[in-house]
Amino acid sequence: MPAKPTTPIVLNGLGSRGLNTQGQTSTLGPEWLTEAENIVYDLEGRMGPRQGVKQISKTVASPVKSFGCYTKSDRTTECFGGSGSTIVKLDTTVTPNNLTTQSFSGTPQTITDSNWQWINFNTEFWGIQSGHKVINYDGTNWYDIDDLGAYAAPTGPTTFDPSCGLGEFGRMWYGGITEDPGTLYYSDNLIGEKLTGGAAGVLDLHTVWGNDEIVGLAALENKIVIFGKENIAIYKGAEDPSTMVLEELIRDKGLAGRDNIVYVGADIVFLSYEGLESFQRTTQTDGRSPLEGLTTTVRNALVRLLVDADVDNIKSCYYQKEGFVVTFMPDDDIAYCFDFALGKKEFPRITIWTFNDNPLCAFSTVDGKMYMGLSNSVAEYDGYYDVSISDVTGTYGNQSVCEAAGNTWRSPICWAYTNNQYNWSFQSPWLDLGKPVVAKIVKTGLMSISGGEDATSTIFISKDYEEDSIYSKTFTLTSDATTYLWGDQTSLYGIAKYAPAASPRQYRVPLARTGRVIRIKMTTEVKGKASTLITAVLLSKLGKIR
Length: 546
Description:
This protein is mainly beta. The chain has 3 helices and 46 strands. The strands form 13 sheets. The protein has a 5-stranded antiparallel sheet with strand order 4-38-45-40-41, with no helix packed on it. The chain has a 4-stranded antiparallel sheet with strand order 1-46-39-44, with no helix packed on it.
C-alpha cells in the first residue's frame, strides 16, 4: 500500500477573532482562542505582544490610583495624579520624571484617598472624589471648591462631596453626594463652582428610578446620560437643563464603577455588571438609544470577576492610537483588552493582559501616549519590556562605577533600569481540521513569525481532549534582517545609515502527535522586540477512522 501523502492544513485566521470562553471548545473554529494572554492585534489583524509597562517616574510613598492631564488655554498640558493624601504633578523636565507634591491655597481639606475623577472644564482642571470636596486647579493654584471666589453652595446638603462629575453643555454636573446620592446638581453657565443662583439647579431622580444612586455621567449628542447602579436615565435637551426632559429610563442595567465610561468614535462604551456595552448612536425609529452587549464571548468569566470585585478600583481607558479599550482590574491582577480597530460595526477582539506591576489607572493622550499609575510610580505604555527603576546609589556611588555596572547616572543618583520579560501566548480550541472522525498524524508545524529576535517560543500540542497529554517543542526566534551601517564595507551607501530590513521567517517545528482533534498552544517570550505570528500551517497525514 502506498504511503499516504503529507497534506498541508492552513489554519487561516488563527486567533483572529480573539478570546472565547463562552462557547463549546469542541465546536469553535481556529479563528477563536480559549486563552489569549498579553496579545494585541496589528493593522492586518495578526497576533503579537502588548507593549511594555515602562516606569518613567521616581517612586512615591503611595499608589497612584488616578491620573489625568490638564489642557491649558494655550493647548499645552500638565499631568497630575492622586497618590495617597496628595496630588502629584508629573515633571518631565528631569529623567526619571519627578512626581511633585502640590500645595493648596485657602483652607484645604484633609485628603484621605486618591481615587479622583479628573475633568477639564472652562480652561480649568477639576478633581472629584467620593467623601471629599471638589478640588480645582486654575493653571497656577489649587483650591477646594468652597475657597473659590464665586462659590455658592447648593441648597440642601450640609457637605457638597460628589463622587462623580461631568463638564459638558457649558456647565459642571455633579452626582453621588453622600447625603443625597440620587440627586443631580448642575452649575451656572461657565461657573463650575456656582451651584445656587443664575442657571444653576438640581434634578431629583428619586421619582424616576427610586432609591438608586448616581455612579457616573456622560454626554450623548444633546443628552445627558445618568448612570446609576441599577438604572440608566437619559435626558434630552441638556443644553438647557431647566427644560430638559426624560427621554428614556433603562432599568436593570447599571454602571460597574465610575471610571468605566469611555468614548469610542461616536459611541459611548461602558462597563455594566454584565460586561462591556455600548450606546449605538444610530437614530432608531422610536428615537431611543439601544444598548448593545459587546462581550458575549467572555460573559460568564467577566461577570464572575465583577460580582466579587470592588468596582471602584476598576478603571477603563480608550487608547485611540491602536483602537482598543483596556479595563484594568488590579484586584484580580489582570486587564481585559477590547480591540475595536476593525470598527464599531464589529464586536471587539478580546484578550487578557497580565503584568509584573499591575496598573491601577490609565490615561490616553491625543499624541498617542498612555500613562499608567502603578503601586508607587507612573509608567508609559511603551517598548517591549516591563521596565522598573530603582535607586542604587548606595552601591554605585559615583558616575564611573554606576555606568560601569550598566546603570544610568543622573547626578547625584545612580538609577538601575531593570528590563522585566513577559510572555504572550494563545491557545486554540479543539480542532478536528475538517475530518472529525479520522485520526490525524501531525508531523510538522510551519510557523511564519516576524521579529522577536533571540526570544524563545514554545508550541504545545494536545490531542483528543486529554489535558495531561501534551507534547511541547521550544525554538529560538532569529532574524533575517540585514543592517547597513555608516561606512561599513557592506553598506550600500557610505553616506547613509539604514535600519534593519526584516521579513517573516518560517520555523519548521517537529510535532509528532496523532489524534482526532488537536489543540495548539504557543507561548513566546517578549525580550525587547515585538514578534508577530503571520501564518500557521500543519503538515499532517490522515490515519484510521476512529
